Amino acid sequence: MSRRSERTGKLIQREISGLLERQVNDPRLSKFVSVTEVVLSPDLQYAKVYVSTLETETNKEDLLAGFNKASGFLRKELAAHLGLRQMPQLSFHYDDSIERGARLLKLISELNTDEDHKISSRNSLHRDKGGENGTNKRGHSRRR
């Protein structure tokens, strides 16, 4: 990706986020929707806009339908704010990276709690087997 298309993608991402926050009234595009990335074609004619949401009950198809319905409005507003010679055609795609990240964090925390449980049970097992002075229950030394 060229430097110009990368900069333009960041500008489009920032502007769409602002428009969602201030001017879009579609209930499908709630306040918990974020634009995660904008990828432009090399000729700056097409832009893939990746969106995500934090709401678990939001349907992906409804979210994308809301964006497709608002795409004309968004494109017109972007053209007015950005002053590009030609505004790219917007296509919206769902990005599930936030969900995948949350799922991975949950799995990691479950592994940590399981590991903590194993360590604490192992420590209590060692305390049960040995005496206070370094000998086991029969009086033999633990050291070899």
In short:
The chain has 144 residues and is α+β, with helices and mostly antiparallel strands. It is built from 3 helices and 3 strands; from the N terminus they run H-E-E-H-E-H. The chain folds into 2 domains: 3-95, K homology (KH) domain (GMP Synthetase, Chain A, domain 3, 2-Layer Sandwich); 97-128.
How would you describe this structure in keywords?
single chain, 144 residues, 3-stranded mixed β-sheet, alpha+beta, 3 helices, elongated, 2 domains, 53% helix, GMP Synthetase, Chain A, domain 3, 3 strands
Task: Please explain how this structure is put together.
The protein has 144 residues and is an alpha+beta fold. The chain has 2 domains: 3-95, 2-Layer Sandwich (GMP Synthetase, Chain A, domain 3), CATH 3.30.300.20; 97-128. The protein has helices spanning 3-22, 60-82, 97-129, and strands spanning 33-40, 46-53, 89-94. A 3-stranded mixed beta sheet has the order 1-2-3. Strand 1 (33-40) and strand 2 form a beta hairpin. Helix 1 crosses helix 2. The model has no long low-confidence stretch (mean pLDDT 81).
Lay out the secondary structure.
Blueprint: H1 3-22, E1 33-40, E2 46-53, H2 60-82, E3 89-94, H3 97-129
Parallel strand pairs: 2-3
Antiparallel strand pairs: 1-2
